[in-house]
Amino acid sequence: MIPAIGLVLSVEMIRDGGSLAATFQGTDNCEYWLFLPLRRNKTGPDALLGPGYEEPLILDRLIPREIPITWQQAEILLSQMKPLLEHERDLKWFAFMSEVVRLRGAYPRDKA
What we know:
- By secondary structure, the chain is of the alpha+beta class.
- The chain has one domain (5-107).
- Helix content is 22%, strand content 35%.
- The protein is built from 2 helices and 7 strands; from the N terminus they run βββββββαα.
- The strands form 2 sheets. A 5-stranded antiparallel sheet has the order 1-2-3-6-7.
- α1 (71-81) runs antiparallel to α2 (89-102).
- The longest helix is centred in the C-terminal third of the chain and has 14 residues, at 89-102.
- The radius of gyration is 14 Å and the shape is globular.
- The chain starts with a strand and ends in a 10-residue tail after the last helix.
């Protein structure tokens, strides 16, 4: 089940090489990530396949678990998050993450 969003805490690029995360508190007071993992070569954990992102996930930070979601569900979550953004610093990564989701995981051409 996809958690309802109560508060957006941050939107950022993760220091693993470029994965994207929107951290939010659910209405259940638990912390979650809407996570777009950077696409990686399956033969080696450090080898990138090229610019792009894997299918979106919700990461439950309280009990470590991953909830796979569709690109359409990620779009809906981002549209629910937009009016809840409180920090100017999150706008850049929110716009980038929204574009990646719109492109279904492709890296935006103007950013490559």
